[in-house]
Amino acid sequence: MVYNNNQNIDGSSENMDRQAHKMEEPVPKVDPSAADQTKDEPNKVMAESELHEDIDEDVDIGFQFEDTSNIEVPKLLIDQVLGQEHAVEVVRKAASQRRHIMMIGTPGTGKSLLAKAMAELLPKEELKDILVYPNLEDLNNPKIREVPAGKGREIVMAHKMEARKKAQARNMLMMLFVVGIIIYSYFVSQLLWGIIAGIMILMLTRQFLPKEEMMIPKMAVSNYDKEHAPYIDATGAHAGALLGDVRHDPFQSGGLETPAHDRVEAGDIHKAHKGVLFIDEINTLRLESQQSLLTALQEKEYPITGQSERSSGALVKTEPVPCDFIMVSAGNLDAVQKMHPALRSRIKGYGYEVYMRDSMEDTHENRKKLVRFVAQEVMRDGHIPHFDEGAVEEVIREARRRAGRKGHLTLKLRDLGGLVRVAGDIAHSEGAPLTTSEHVLAAKRIARSIEQQLADSYLEQRKEYESFLRKGSAVGRVNGLAVMGGDSGIVLPIVSEVTPALSGAEGRIIATGKLKTIAKEAVQNVSAVIKNMTGTDVSRHDVHIQFVGTYEGVEGDSASVSIATAVISAIEKIPVDQTVAMTGSLSVRGDVLPVGGVTYKIEAAAQAGMKKVIIPKANEADVLVEKAYREKIQIIPVSSIAEVMEHSLVGPRKNTIIEKLKNITKLSFDIPEVSPASVQAINLFGCRN
């Protein structure tokens, strides 16, 4: 369940492809009694020692080094990309064949870095300069000329020198003429009139004679002395900046106007000629701009005209300007939906589509890549000290934790790079020669996201006002768990009350708390589960479900287990242990399915003072809890609603309902494996594997 307006599914969808994940370690048995925590049977619930042993596993990098200054950083950007081997291969092929690319994936996974790397792979010899010349036959239709890189600068300088010489010669001739008039007027005793006549001649000459500067071509695109093909980031560019524009001229006559060709400004598509044009969040471009971009891709040239109808440049339109660029578009999955269909078709027909991975396997080779990543970030920043081996190991531990999956390392390297820089800033402020693990740990405390800070404030406020209970038991009340912003957990109390139906025809399920689509569907599904599990026909009752304090809305289905527990507790009048928090999605057959953000939810429960937390068994291997929370909370992995009831309900009456649930749910089914891309595609397009 996501407690955030900006999220559509529980946590990040990459956590969902572990539904068919097979655990290599034996799963520890669970304690049949949830109410009595003082028992110490051999099959005690928690495999805490085993879980902690997994978490405390040392980071074996595979080689030793003093600090990251000893790590060699590749010179080419393409060799600095981590964990995106497929994308790197595609970029290399696209660069050699001049193909377009669309990269889709989570922000911070290296899309812009790959686009920059592509520009480095393009041949420098093909670069061109673009000049705009005046058209004496039609001043509003400037001429375009394409010349080799660096040649345009020479041409403009030569025209300027020639214009300067002509201007000097003309000025000298006029001065001699004026001086002659003044001398003549002196001899005819009309000196004053001679001076006035000379001044008038100079003014009229300057006003009406053609200026030599008007014939100087304008450099629209210059690639003088560039080491690589141009890389232009046109993300968020308006139509004028993207397609080119003509500057407004307030003086349109009387000899004071600026020549039309001199007011022409090249757009990003022209500046990217023979290079790379990168557009992130391409779906945010207006459809008109996307249509024009499609034309530029097809024709490889696009004339520049005034983008404002009210501007004096609206009548100016140049000859077609070359714009033979490679377009690298990027975005999240929603970008695919909102793109101009013809533009996407052009990319698919003449290029590649790449899905960016957001995690990689935790292997020795990939840990070495993260060591190099830290060295790269230190080198790029240039103001922070290098990291010693202990500091790098702590960064790798955080990469494991942020991946949210057992045996994986995160590839959201922009966020991880932020941690590196904050840790380096702390070391720099202390005057330390190297960044150590203590600096990284301090950075983790300081560099918390806004959502994490809000979640901490939320928990403190809810503790103060006792919005959720931390001890005792209560009927129809469950401590659910949610994520805020994808990296912060919160405790979300859920309260249920069952009353006789007001309508004689059928009862209703009334849920409050600004529920969104998936959350509403989860509530509806729970009614089927309750009917099957308890034998109670909920159609004869009004079931009230309240998500306490959800002012920002709730989305996702990871509250299904919590809702079912609260409703069953309310129907059967069996209390729920308030020291327990829980999360998990529930199938209509009573199986507990995996959810996202389980680590952050566990930490939120521990921070809130809970003693136990129930999670899906499929998420057991994904738990990477911080050391500060490991001894504070007991983690109970479950696979069915019967196990949830076993560990959450209290009192002698719970055994009856548990036996009934076990009989109903003893038939299990295999959970199909779902890849991250497929999960997001199902949510967005309604497609199936």
From TrEMBL:
| Biased composition regions of type Basic and acidic residues, renumbered to the chain | 15-28, 37-51
Active-site residues per Swiss-Prot or TrEMBL entry:
S558, K601
PROSITE patterns referenced in this protein's UniProt entry, alphabetically: LON_PROTEOLYTIC (PS51786)
Instruction: Give the subcellular location.
Output: Cell membrane
Q: Keyword S-adenosyl-L-methionine on this protein? A: no
Where is this chain compositionally biased, Polar residues type? 1-14
Pfam families from the xrefs? Lon_C, LonB_AAA-LID, Mg_chelatase, Sigma54_activat
Tell me which residues make up the Lon proteolytic domain. Answer: 472-651
Q: Which SMART domains match?
A: AAA
**Looking at the record, which segments are called Disordered?**
1-51
EC main group: hydrolase
Q: Which UniProt keywords apply?
A: ATP-binding, Cell membrane, Hydrolase, Membrane, Nucleotide-binding, Protease, Serine protease, Transmembrane, Transmembrane helix
Q: Which domain of life is it from?
A: Archaea
EC nos = 3.4.21.-
Lipid bilayer topology: Multi-pass membrane protein
Per the record, its GO cellular-component terms are: plasma membrane
GO MF entries: ATP binding; ATP-dependent peptidase activity; serine-type endopeptidase activity
List the transmembrane segments: 169-186
Entry similarity comment: Belongs to the peptidase S16 family. Archaeal LonB subfamily.
NCBIfam families the UniProt entry points to: lon_rel (TIGR00764)
Protein function = ATP-dependent serine protease that mediates the selective degradation of mutant and abnormal proteins as well as certain short-lived regulatory proteins. Degrades polypeptides processively.
**Which protein is depicted?**
Archaeal Lon protease
| Protein's organism | Methanosarcina mazei WWM610
